[in-house]
Amino acid sequence: MSHLSLRLRIFLFFCLIALGGTVIVLAALWVGHGRALQTGPADGFLFAGILATFGLVALCAGIWLLFDENVAKPIERLSAQLRARAHAGINTEVNTEAARYLGDLAPAASAITAALSESTVSTAERIAAETERLAAEKERLTALLTEIPVATLLINAHDQIVLYDGQAAEVLAQQAVPRLNAPLSDYFDPAGLTAARTALMKCGKEISRTLEGLDGQQSYEARLKPTEGGGYMMIIDAAHIEIPPEAARPLIYDFDLLQARGGSRIDDLPLSALTFTVFDTETTGLLPHKDEIVQIGAVRVVNGRIIEGEQINQLVDPGRPIPPASTKVHKVTDAMVAGQPNIARAGRLFHGFARDSVIVAHNAPFDMAFLQRHKARMGVVWDHPILDTVLLSAVLFGASETHTLDALCQRLGVTIPEALRHTALGDARATAEVLVRMLPMLQARGLTTFGAVIEETRRHGRLLEDLN
Length: 468
Description:
alpha+beta; elongated; 16 helices; single chain; 6-stranded antiparallel sheet
């Protein structure tokens, strides 16, 4: 009956067109007939034709608006909700009220997704138990490695970091922000690395080398051991490095990076092979051409997951008083930024953190405009590929929906703690969680490469123009 009701509703749209069109034509002929009696038949029929044309156009526009609001948009919203549940693991209920004129379609979709969710509960419980066991083992391994006075890194065949422990994090931090998938040459002198790598591959067994830091001021005694697949372990004597308990870092790794791809154009790379740096800024105001950044927050996403422990939460001295109205929003005060790095230093720090990655932001042109304005002071070029979650939202949920960060978080089941809302790191983390949920949804729609996603987002570029 519900299915017939949906068919009946669609049938009524066509009946309305037929009936309304008939009435308009008859009314136009009646008016034209009256005019014909006064000015002649030709003028009367012409006037009737004009009235009928305008009337039919207005009727079609009105019916299209009804159809769009009550059928087309609800179907678009329903399909987006189903994709979110299917590919992003969202467990929110299907909004049947928004699709109330679609007959049994929404209840049927809700029933199917509920049944599928129930069928996966036992599997999820088993996975959760296994995950808990693995997490406990990882904690024990991390604790053990922390007690050993060496820094351990695993490097893949493309000289990118696959694993680093707490001591290694401290060693790397002496040169730049530690991060997975980063080239080792970001931390050590490239010439020395090349010579050590050549010697390692030539002899095929453990070697010892003194490596210079990239800053040219520090040197490290390192042992290199070859591993399968062309990679190697690097072990550095870190006995002299003290790690305070509150600063201890977890063991950070992603073994999928052992098969890292190299040499392809970024447009041809699959989304799953990309590294993303997701960031947000807090500012003294909303005018990029004259306001200043007071805080930068950033996190990294590698192989579709947020890397815990790799983040930036940097206050920035804007060199001017922060307006009280801005402080009321982001809670950053003049006292908090006093003595903090200026935008030149903070910008260089973030630039290094985002090297060789895709930069992601919510309404990216706004945040990037602040960085681009000071690129000469920073001594860097902002030529990273850019991805905007506003445009990704438009691709997945339709341009007519609301695309604020709050709306996206609600739609995708992301919770922003109130204490972190409107802080740079809090909003960057929320944007990263939104991105992680949207990536499989994009792939399910056939947008599997970075180039395909960018091409699709260009269709919605007007959204950013309206926002800015």
